[in-house]
Write a structure and sequence with these properties.
Residues 1-183 form the Heme-copper oxidase subunit III family profile domain. With 183 residues, the chain is an all-alpha fold. The chain is built from 5 helices and no strands. Helix 3 runs antiparallel to helix 4 (110-137). The model has no long low-confidence stretch (mean pLDDT 90).
Amino acid sequence: ATWLLLSSFYSWMMDIVTEATYLGCHTSIVARGLKIGFTLFLISEAFFFVGFFWAWFSSGIGNLSSGCLWPPRPIIPVYPWGAPLFNTAILLASGAAVTWAHRAVAIHDREEAMIPLGLCVLAGVVFLRFQFGEYKAASFTIADSAYGSCFYMLTGLHGSHVLGGTLFLAAMLVRNYFCHFIR
């Protein structure tokens, strides 16, 4: 099943790149479909995150079964001023770098775009490395309570988005290297 998903994704990406790069542009129907599909994707992701944050806060209000403690004992929560704060700074810097890259691509400055795209890919890899380290150091698992379930679902979903974004940015870095954005 994973092989089918990955090969379908690769084939779809190659089709999109071929249409946009070598054939000149997408048809209006394809462009409209991409916009609608991406909009629906963003809406579904927003609902997914809202649902898990709702579960997180609803569980955190406290109930008698957990002794009105959040997180429930014996869970020791992740220290927020260490790796999570560092990862937040990395993502904010990556957001600034991707804006820099977008502006460079918009004015057809290929060399200028290479630096921020490379920084974004590096930032994604560093983020994922620190998140993996955070998982290894955590004193709880996904099965320990609603706290563990929500924590790992939210951070895992976020990490999968960072992984996907890093892969897309790496593809953009390669495409920029081969002058796919210059007409």
